[in-house]
Amino acid sequence: MPAVSKGDGMRGLAVFISDIRNCKSKEAEIKRINKELANIRSKFKGDKALDGYSKKKYVCKLLFIFLLGHDIDFGHMEAVNLLSSNKYTEKQIGYLFISVLVNSNSELIRLINNAIKNDLSSRNPTFMCLALHCIANVGSREMAEAFASEIPRILVAGDTMDSVKQSAALCLLRLYKTSPDLVMMGEWTSRVVHLLNDQHMGVVTAAISLITCLSQKNPDEFKTCVSLAVSRLSRIVSSASTDLQDYTYYFVPAPWLSCKLLRLLQCYPPPEDGAVKGRLVECLETILNKAQEPPKSKKVQHSNAKNAILFEAISLIIHYDSEPNLLVRACNQLGQFLQHRETNLRYLALESMCTLASSEFSHEAVKTHIETVINALKTERDVSVRQRAADLLYAMCDRSNAKQIVAEMLSYLETADYSIREEMVLKVAILAEKYAVDYSWYVDTILNLIRIAGDYVSEEVWYRVIQIVINRDDVQGYAAKTVFEALQAPACHENMVKVGGYILGEFGNLIAGDPRSSPLVQFNLLHSKFHLCSVPTRALLLSAYIKFINLFPETKATIQEVLRCDSQIRNSDVELQQRAVEYLKLSSIASTDVLATVLEEMPPFPERESSILAKLKKKKGPGAVSVTELEDNKREGGELNGEGDRGPDPAAMASSNASTPSPSADLLGIRSAAPVGAAPTSVGSLLVDVFSEAGPAAPSAAVNDDGFLSSASPSEDPAPPLSEADELLNKFVCKNNGVLFENQLLQIGIKSEYRQNLGRMYLFYGNKTSVQFASFTTTVSCPGELQSQLNASDQTSGTTGRGWSPDPTGTQHRVLTDFSDAPLLNIKFRYGGALQNLTLKLPVTINKFFQPTEMTSHDFFQRWKQLSQPQQEAQKIFKANHSMDTEVLKAKLLGLGTALLDDVDPNSENYVCAGVIQTKGQQVGCLLRLEPNGQAQMYRLTLRCSKDSVSRRLCELLAEQF
Amino acid sequence: MIGGLFIYNHKGEVLISRVYRDDIGRNAVDAFRVNVIHARQQVRSPVTNIARTSFFHVKRSNIWLAAVTKQNVNAAMVFEFLYKMCDVMTAYFGKISEENIKNNFVLIYELLDEILDFGYPQNSETGALKTFITQQGIKGQHQTKEEQSQITSQVTGQIGWRREGIKYRRNELFLDVLESVNLLMSPQGQVLSAHVSGRVVMKSYLSGMPECKFGMNDKIVIDKQGKGAVSDDAGKSDLGGGSSGKQSIAIDDCTFHQCVRLSKFDSERSISFIPPDGEYELMRYRTTKDIILPFRVIPLVREVGRTKLEVKVVIKSNFKPSLLAQKIEVRIPTPLNTSGVQVICMKGKAKYKASENAIVWKIKRMAGMKESQISAEIELLPTNDKKKWARPPISMNFEVPFAPSGLKVRYLKVFESKLNYSDHDVIKWVRYIGRSGIYETRC
């Protein structure tokens, strides 16, 4: 044991611990612990009071036993007692025990809070620090409730010691993270920001963490911190490293603080003030300059600290994206790192360059490093670094280097790690499509891709090839020839067979002239793969065969033979069997004209957003900047795709989507089905049924597809609100949930909740038809002056589809001041080609923001008298619209949101209510009296509010209700 | 079959590692250590599967023995082997401890080579092993060629457990009936479960190749023979206590040493064998009916408020007053929040053992048909834990000089036709010891 002064040694503890360590087995350890626990129990139970030292010792032992993994269910009281000790060591052990062991629902929490409060107000910095650490370590909601208001005061008080300030800042940060709603900065904000100017570097470092976190939530309130941060940063950067003695880390001045400052600045746009901006640019330049200087130390810590600042500075430069000079310099700096010995540095360089590549200023500069990056892709030993290299290649790709990059990625794919193959495949597919100069190259690339990494080629990739081939007349022949050649390989991937089957089925005729690829040869080639394929592919091949019958009548006998054989016509798979039977009948019954109509070549696909891109986005998650960036570029490069801004993918895609009920639906299905409906043959009608089942979009959606597109472009103004909107509104004065609107197409349900001046409303849209609505959009607007009175923001998540939309639209309201009008909800969608335009009033009324207030009869009438000015009162006498049942009336008044007060009015017939309306700026107290007159079926309603407009509005609203 | 065998000390360090098959790699050693010995939660199952490898372990004091296999082996066989292995080691160097194992590395590897071959268990009879695996070192080499070939013929022959040409001046034979009685009783004195597992252990010093025949009061045999034959042996071996006037016991199941002729047992239910030389276990058996319970425990627990508990336990001995039970120990569990205990007992010594959370009451000797009591006051520390104390059962240990199952040895006859001694010349000793197994009464 190390020598310690006798008072604090706790020899008993040391002996106990060494006993435990010497135990030969688990059983021996348990025995020793049981013995100790019994000893401590008898000591705690003992009648004579323990002195602080032994209490500390036993609590320490308990803590040690707990940390060994045994349950401790006593000793909490003793630990709490230690908190009130005056000795540091005892207090410290008490706090330690509490932060480790006390759970928040314990009844001791009140005592603990009390002790903490005492310590916080003790003015002894060590005790204050201990208390703050305990609050931060426990960090429970109860703690936050008790101390959230106290800690900011300590933080900004002038006479607080630096070390306490540091602790207070971090403690507040912790509380803010656990319960942000309880930490109200309000008036402290500016003083907290000014902590950036504090003399003590430790305080600044702690405070900046807090400020960064707070400013992410409300950037506006903390705007002033930008200039302070810049000046602080410039002072650090320009200082000689000796200036900040304690905070110089291996010759780098205050690296943590610098990084945090740079990160804080990344929360804001570039400063508008020219002087500040100039100073910041100067700082960033200095940082970049320093990176070029020879290192002052060979130690790895020195370079780590330096590089940390450098990378943070570079991400700030990228964030601003406005200084071409800096961007290029950053890029050059990263270029140096690309060949650094350190793997971590190379990784970081690749990662940062990825974001640099998306900036217009530095894109060219990034491109110069292409050789290094390709080299990295090939030679890096760490898979995560290779992954970054692949990302960077993808990001830096443009038309000039697409061919090279795609070729490199393809060649890498052969040896790539399994974990990143699928992503690589998607990237290659996207790049190939986006920067395709001629489409034969594109087709070659994709077929190569399927050949090299067939297993990783997702459905979307080969759908896309087919869409492009079908939409581009000029490549069809080449594509047919290429797939024919590719299929001749002895073993080819199933995806290749799918592409081959589809393309030969459509465009086999284009290469049929060549005797080497005569129709029969084509068919035999396809059929040789048939038996090796899975059911969906076989189904697709069967459709290809029937198309062959149409294209090449000479193959009819052979194909009919194939269809007729037992393995098709009696296949155990229903889909295959049905196709075989139907195609066989179709080919033998229908005339060539009918056949030609039914099996017509596929029409071009209307374009939407590339499904591959969507898939890649899904894979990468929202963090991937490069992908969204790429999407923008895509629009620029759109004309290259020929189809202009028509994105890919139509109904046929939908049929093969994940939502498809029948897994064997294929691309041929739906398109060929539509004409069949038109040609009324006996078989045809059967086909329609089959296919309408197969596709979720249903025939009508498919048929009307083009109509949709043509009428989609003009944008309509929102329709005027429905005439019955006001009536609908009144239904919701006294209730929060229900059906807002219903017609033969659509039902809108509403669910709302209110707290203080905030309200949240969920709208549920139900599609009552069996057809999907297209381009379903909703907007919430506040007309006229309401805009200044009520903040309405809607968080619409795209909701179309049949039945109840799974995720409702949320609307959030924040009342700024009282209001009388209601926000408007505009809904637009297409049903059967016709645009439906609906405008409804959202049932947000002033009374929703009521907070009930309970008061006695005396209080009520005292206030009633205080609000005696004539404009504060609104009164109305009106006839009852509904029955005057007591219970119904009570329910309505409660639904209003006010408190219904009993025994207030001397006349028990009368109803009396009180409540406070919460708005952002102010609170409006409201008192209400409703005097029913049973004989005359009349009411007298009297309202007195501290604001006249509120009384009037409420009076209007309520008169309708009774 | 067994792929390998490892022995660890309490820290998980490997003392012995013997791999018999290639499918067991070096990492298996570590896997067992990490997943069982050093496991965060105590591993209670004796069989652990880690990455398609099965580990069968037994623990002797602080030593872990683990057999490893990748195949689907008969687990009972593996454990039987491990127990046998423990017996063999005990016979060679006494208690199995880290110290002893470290001192006998070479011997243990030699033994492992002999008793397991490519994972298949071989002859593990201590007597036979001792003939060719000796601890004398150089001396062993003085065996003559003939002796060596004799070992071979014996080990590979029909009677592998006994060599020929043994000679004793005094032909002597010791027979111990060792039983352990297990009980679980409700607080009201209702027997919830009870069984006796017994062993017949023999030590024989007989010359030549004698043929022995063992007889006991097995119900099936008695019923078959009728009353006449019983009387002559019954008087001699009627040492057993208890009030049982019954003549026979029903044996639920039994297993025999390999020397017993099973075919004869199956056909005539007679136990005849050529005994190995020295000590061995002739048979094991189990009974569940008509068990004589030597002690009755009557608990009385009263909770006085939240901070006090009063316990009174009475034990009654239930056998002939002339017999003496020994080494009686009653273990009364105390709640986990006990802060102090006062004990008063009339007989023996009682002590609160905090390390085991129990009051241990020891009585050296106690005659039959007596009773004794202990009372204790337990002080409790109030805790904020709402869990109620689970009240574990009161357990008991003792040793009595009779067989609680009621088993009696009727005869043990020795026939040696070649040498000129007869059954009457053999000196025979019979002893009954009944011990407590898990003998618990709920309170």
From TrEMBL, chain A:
A 1,2-diacyl-sn-glycero-3-phospho-(1D-myo-inositol-3,4,5-trisphosphate) binds at R11, G12, K43, Y53, K57, Y58, V59, C60, K61. It comes from the Eukaryota. GO terms for cellular component: AP-2 adaptor complex. GO terms for biological process: clathrin-dependent endocytosis; intracellular protein transport. Residues 790-799 have a biased composition (Polar residues). SMART domains: Alpha_adaptinC2. It holds the Pfam family Alpha_adaptinC2. GO terms for molecular function: clathrin adaptor activity. Keywords: Cell membrane, Coated pit, Endocytosis, Membrane, Protein transport, Transport. The keyword Calcium does not apply. Residues 650-665 have a biased composition (Low complexity). It is a peripheral membrane protein. Residues 631-648 have a biased composition (Basic and acidic residues). Residues 624-666, 790-811 are annotated as: Disordered. InterPro entries: Adaptor_Complx_Large_Subunit, AP2_complex_asu, ARM-like, ARM-type_fold, Clathrin/coatomer_adapt-like_N, Clathrin_a-adaptin_app_sub_C, Clathrin_a/b/g-adaptin_app_Ig, Clathrin_app_Ig-like_sf. It is found in: Cell membrane; Membrane, Coated pit. Residues 730-843 form the Clathrin adaptor alpha/beta/gamma-adaptin appendage Ig-like subdomain domain. Component of the adaptor protein complex 2 (AP-2). Adaptor protein complexes function in protein transport via transport vesicles in different membrane traffic pathways. Adaptor protein complexes are vesicle coat components and appear to be involved in cargo selection and vesicle formation. AP-2 is involved in clathrin-dependent endocytosis in which cargo proteins are incorporated into vesicles surrounded by clathrin (clathrin-coated vesicles, CCVs) which are destined for fusion with the early endosome. Belongs to the adaptor complexes large subunit family. Adaptor protein complex 2 (AP-2) is a heterotetramer composed of two large adaptins (alpha-type subunit AP2A1 or AP2A2 and beta-type subunit AP2B1), a medium adaptin (mu-type subunit AP2M1) and a small adaptin (sigma-type subunit AP2S1). This is AP-2 complex subunit alpha. It comes from Cottoperca gobio (Frogmouth). The gene is ap2a1.
TrEMBL record, chain B:
Signal peptide: none annotated. It holds the Pfam family Clat_adaptor_s. GO terms for molecular function: lipid binding. Gene3D superfamilies: 3.30.450.60, Mu homology domain, subdomain B. It comes from Cottoperca gobio (Frogmouth). It comes from the Eukaryota. This is AP-2 complex subunit mu-A isoform X1. The keyword Membrane applies. Belongs to the adaptor complexes medium subunit family. It is a peripheral membrane protein. The keyword Transport applies. A 1,2-diacyl-sn-glycero-3-phospho-(1D-myo-inositol-3,4,5-trisphosphate) binds at K349, K351, K353, K362, K364. Keywords: Cell membrane, Coated pit, Endocytosis, Lipid-binding, Membrane, Protein transport, Transport. Residues 170-442 form the MHD domain. One of its GO terms (cellular component) is plasma membrane. Its main location: membrane. It is found in: Cell membrane; Membrane, Coated pit. GO terms for biological process: endocytosis; intracellular protein transport.
